[in-house]
Design goal:
It is built from 7 helices and no strands. It is 70% helix and 0% strand. Helix 3 runs antiparallel to helix 4 and helix 3 packs parallel to helix 5. The protein has 2 domains: 29 residues; 95 residues, Alpha Horseshoe (Serine Threonine Protein Phosphatase 5, Tetratricopeptide repeat), CATH 1.25.40. The protein is globular and about 95 Å long. The protein has 155 residues and is an all-alpha fold. The longest helix is centred in the N-terminal third of the chain and has 27 residues.
């Protein structure tokens, strides 16, 4: 008899527990006769996704965010979205100002975009921050080439 009561109590509690678990799921479903919510077509906006500018609580110096910005910027470069890559590399320079690597990538992005003066300045900043870089000679030659091309265009 005692076993029968224990099993009834157990079944009662299990049934109520199951009902409580199902109830929140049901509450999240829209009413069947409700019209679907009307959604406007998304408008394309220029990319102004700078974490330090859009969130006041975001720290200015954030090395982990700088690394993530570089990673995402390189992804955008592979996809061909040079403007988005430039935005990300600039964010990385703001998140970790003394870090040379984003300036090299920024130079590459500006060069692809055809902005030779800005590319040369970014490359120069890279060399200023990292004068003993393995690719310093190569970057110096790029800077000289870019400035020569800018002078040719001006003439």
């Amino acid at each position: 008899m005692k076993r029968f009561r224990v099993s009834r109590v157990f079944l009662f509690l299990a049934g109520n527990g199951l009902a409580l678990m199902v109830r929140p799921v049901l509450a999240q479903e829209p009413a069947p006769d409700a019209p679907p919510a009307k959604q406007d077509a998304p408008k394309s906006k220029p990319n102004k996704d700078s974490a330090t500018k859009s969130a006041a609580d975001q720290p200015t110096w954030d090395p982990l965010r700088a690394e993530k910005d570089i990673e995402v910027g390189k992804y955008y470069m592979r996809k061909g979205d040079v403007d988005a890559a430039i935005d990300r590399f600039q964010d990385a320079t703001e998140a970790k100002p003394g870090y040379a690597i984003p300036f090299r990538y920024l130079g590459e992005a500006y060069e692809k975009k055809g902005k030779k003066t800005q590319a040369a300045k970014a490359y120069q900043r890279y060399l200023d921050l990292y004068p003993h870089a393995e690719d310093a000679d190569k970057i110096q030659k790029k800077i000289e080439k870019l400035y020569k091309e800018v002078e040719k265009e001006r003439s």
